[in-house]
Amino acid sequence: MAEAAFIDLCRSLQSQAAATRQRRLLVLSGGREWGQAQARLLCQHLLADNRSPRACWVGTGETLPEATRIAPTQSGALLGSEWALLVFDGWSGLHPDALGAACGAVMGGGLMLLLVPPLAQWPDFPDPDYERLAVWPLQPEAVRGQFLRWMARQVHRSPHLLLLEEGAPLPAMPPAPSLLASPLLHDDSGCLTPGQREAVEAIERVARTPGVPPLVIRSDRGRGKSAALGIAAANLFKAGVKEILVCAPRRAAADSLFENARRRLGLEASRGDLEWGQGRLRFCAPDELLQERPAAQLLLVDEAAAIPAPLLESMLDHYPALVYASTIHGYEGSGRGFALRFQQVLERRRPGWREIRLQQPIRWADGDPLERWCFDSLLLDADCEWRAETAEPLAVRWVSQSQLVEEGPLLRRLFGLLVMAHYRTSASDLRHLLDGPNLRIALLERGQQLLGTALISLEGGFDRPLGQQIWLGRRRPRGHLLPQSLAAHGGLWQAPLLRCLRVMRIAIHPQCQSRGYGSQLLAEVEREARELGCDYLGSSFGVTTRLLPFWLRAGLRPLRLGVSREASSGTHSVMVGKGLSADGCRMIHLGVARFAAEFPGQMVELYPDLDAELAQRLRAGAAGEAPLTPAEARILHWRDLISFADGQRLYETCMATLKAALEEWLAQGLLEPVSEEERTLLLGKVLEGKSWKALATVFPGSGRQQLQQRLRELYGRQLERLLPGELRPLRARALEGATH
């Protein structure tokens, strides 16, 4: 490939992009050194002749001194940034979320370079991103490259890019599109498109007019949705509105909103909440909003698709002036599931609600090839179309990941179904779907219609030494969520030793829900678990009054409830399980019986704000279980004390045992002499339930970690004196493991 001809081709490609205000994608497929050398050469030329004032290189290793380097694992740094020239080095790992964010960071008229191995060899490339996908005991090299096989096909077949292959002639320059760039507004409204101006006016109307139903704004990336929220907030402050709340899954997701509000008000760029005169624009995370319910004249919810519908619905109860904004095809999750599920809630709760969809791009022009390729490759706009059901029988079939790549339309329908059914489905979920080493996929179909799916993972089966380290909280092997958490947080030391089938996701098409299809699919999953010789079936999910009954009907019962709410969902995670083998049934019995005994006493300190109906359903789910026998209670009691004193067990996960032990020692005079300070800590935390923050004022310089460690030492001293003889070898092994 002649250097001059290569540079001329790339300059022509960038000139074409600039003339249309669209972006262009150039893929360099070949050896690593060749691809990186071509990319550096191109960057140097384009930077030298000022065609690209700034360049970004997403990857690791040596790049260009003139380019800003961002590691693929730090793709969040790309959100909100704009680059005229961006290099994505696939040799550093093809993290799907990073690739999507990179596509979104290229400005209109810009150029993106994607460096990849030869397409035929790419599926066998040991991608560095496999490090986060490998599950114990597999090493990263054991991960199969089905996602890379899919991506190689998207590069080879796509008309939306220019492919340069090492050793091959230069490709022909694609013809320029006939469409001209969409004109942007330039007036004093601060808006750049008619749709954005309409959205700003509608937001202001919601805030100013009592009783106006909620407004929903939906758009793809780059359409100015968040900017519209910020411009409207600034206009409302000028009109005398004083208190506006902003809610989003993460603070960073609201940065654009705050930035545009500051710009509209003429304030200097800065981070954090905004104050202007008597007006205040304040961010509030979903969990904080749910618990504290701060007052506001207007609530703006950005990236609503990434917040579960039950939490969005609760906002309707407390905020009369509401605007929900959602990305339709996002790099971090899709808004189509939000639209399908939440519009039903709005129809029922707030009839007359209005939706505005922003169509015209702002950051680039219509018909952008890079956006189209990104959507096609990462399935950001995948759909699971609905056809009228036929009389054909229901069937469940298990499909392999390679089958999904071969049957592209099926993969699109499956991923589209997952998007519709779950509040957060991202591009990374596509990679896990195709490359997850311990993943199995079940499809529920009627003829050609996909009705539902279940994604399950095989977990557990550890040897005793490693199982003990997991129980003590010292080891957390990747990819074994349920056994690890049941042992380290729930005290069920048997969980890592037994084999488990965990239901990761189960989804039924919205058009055929409430017909028993989910229960039929779960019954097939249980049958598969028994055939595989699993000891128990389980799942972990954000618990709501709507979801819990489904699992209880299938015989899965509550084992533990997460202590803290998820910030993005505002829900506690519950773990449920059902025994399949004799050993599995014994372990599930211990977990359910313990939950039934301890949950009521945990309500005050751990779950003071838990919904009363949900609490009742959780208690009912564990009701009827035979109580722990004295022998069972005794072994759990002492094992809890060992795992707390000598391991990394968190206080909150065994507080009932710690309290019962201390009360017994005090009543029987068995508490060894302690200092006045130690006694204050024991009584204040364990018996009185004071918060770590309150105790820190009594023990200056000590935070939660230091105070918890002091409690471990106090209980360890008690075990030295009181631990029964038959359990001392267990403690000796625990202490021995702590020294390695």
UniProtKB/TrEMBL annotation:
It holds the Pfam family TmcA_N. GO terms for biological process: rRNA acetylation involved in maturation of SSU-rRNA; tRNA acetylation; tRNA wobble cytosine modification. Residues 394-592 form the N-acetyltransferase domain. GO terms for molecular function: 18S rRNA cytidine N-acetyltransferase activity; ATP binding; tRNA binding; tRNA cytidine N4-acetyltransferase activity. Keywords: Acyltransferase, ATP-binding, Cytoplasm, Nucleotide-binding, RNA-binding, Transferase, tRNA processing, tRNA-binding. It is found in: Cytoplasm. Its EC number is 2.3.1.193. InterPro entries: Acyl_CoA_acyltransferase, GNAT_dom, P-loop_NTPase, TcmA/NAT10_helicase, TmcA/NAT10/Kre33, TmcA/NAT10_N, TmcA_C_sf, tRNA_acetyltr_TmcA. PANTHER family: N-ACETYLTRANSFERASE 10, RNA CYTIDINE ACETYLTRANSFERASE. This is tRNA(Met) cytidine acetyltransferase TmcA. It comes from Aestuariirhabdus litorea. The lineage of its organism: Bacteria, Pseudomonadati, Pseudomonadota, Gammaproteobacteria, Oceanospirillales.
